[in-house]
Write a structure and sequence with these properties.
alpha+beta, Ribosomal Protein S5, domain 2, 307 residues, seven-stranded mixed beta sheet, single chain, Alpha-Beta Plaits, 27% strand, binds adenosine-5'-diphosphate, globular
Length: 307
């Protein structure tokens, strides 16, 4: 059995417009790399972090917290070292913390001969994610671990549904280099919503799921609308409405806030349209004084990969 493994742990988009706290999908070209190594010395140690300044102490790093939760339950006859090569900026809204929390437990599971299934890995990863977001949720973790589109039917007990990915679907993202505190974007949300909005939203979630199952791009387009969260959160993202109207004009199926922002994602049918959408995002934000990055990615149906 191997003593060391190198993995790609992908960025993910949570919420997917209408699916607040339940839907997510996995990206292909954006993600961290991690090395997980078995050691004779027991315990979990983070021995290298490159890219961003994050805590080495296992209990303060989401990768360490998820690893410790799994380690304490399984009590293996070895320890683990974790190296994190961080490419996803923390706080960007594309699952930076989730990539780390999922990567460590995935790597350990491989080195232990895969005793755990993907749901159990997500369960342990949630323990790490709770460090970053103060609550256990899986809407970024599930797509990172399962790949493709996922729906978290319930977090406790954890029940993840894997949804199909239409083959021509591509994502485009823009990450404005501004900071939005998750607490701030949560605080903006209403405690109650009207029945009318709830009906629209669950009709959209059902339609999106059906659209994914039937590769019905017109239905996906129709369903990618969020009447509950976006009206509140978009005010934290400068030029959100400009980006959205620009990308819809050039053929994107839909556009919404990725996770709690500030990243914005769009979905398109075909890579060519996704690239046109990228240009539209680029043109909109180049007129502002905010730094930004844009990406195009196929939907990653595999999730975390061994390199
Ligand atoms: P994102 O949606 O990009 O993951 P979050 O706000 O959920 O953003 O998570 C970022 C927070 O988690 C930051 O406060 C960061 O310091 C903390 N954190 C702890 N460990 C890690 C890690 N290994 N990777 C990323 N963020 C981490």
């Amino acid at each position: 059995m191997k003593n060391e493994i190198k993995i790609f742990s992908p960025a993910t988009v949570a919420n997917v417009a209408c699916g607040f706290d339940v839907l997510g999908f996995c990206l292909d070209t954006i993600g961290d790399e991690m090395v997980v190594r078995k050691t004779q010395e027991k315990g979990i140690r983070i021995t290298k972090i490159e890219g961003y300044n994050l805590p080495y102490e296992a209990k303060k790093n989401v990768a360490g917290v998820s690893a410790l939760a799994m380690y304490n339950d399984l009590q293996p006859d070895c320890g683990f070292e974790i190296e994190i090569y961080k490419k996803i900026k923390p706080g960007s809204g594309i699952g930076s913390s989730s990539a780390s929390a999922a990567g460590s437990v995935f790597g350990m599971n491989e080195l232990l001969g895969k005793p755990l299934d993907k749901t159990k890995l997500t369960y342990y990863a949630m323990k790490g994610e709770a460090l970053a977001s103060q609550c256990e949720h899986a809407d970024n973790l599930a797509p990172a671990i399962f790949g493709g589109f996922t729906l978290v039917k319930s977090a406790c007990p954890l029940h993840v549904l894997e949804l199909p990915t239409p083959s021509d679907l591509y994502a485009t993202l823009i990450h404005p280099q501004i900071e939005i505190k998750t607490s701030e974007s949560r605080a903006l949300l209403p405690k109650d919503i009207s029945l009318q909005k709830a009906i629209t939203q669950w009709a959209n979630v059902g339609s999106l799921v059906h659209g994914l199952h039937t590769s019905n791009y017109e239905l996906i387009k129709d369903a990618l609308n969020d009447v509950v969260i976006e009206p509140y959160r978009k005010q934290l993202i400068p030029y959100f409405d400009n980006v959205k109207s620009a990308v819809l004009e050039v053929g994107a199926l839909g556009c919404a806030i990725s996770g709690s922002g500030p990243s914005i994602f769009a979905l398109s049918k075909s890579e060519a349209t996704a690239k046109t959408v990228q240009k539209a995002m680029y043109n909109t934000y180049s007129k502002t004084d905010i730094q930004f990055e844009t990406y195009v990615s196929k939907i990653n149906t595999e999730g975390i990969k061994i390199l």
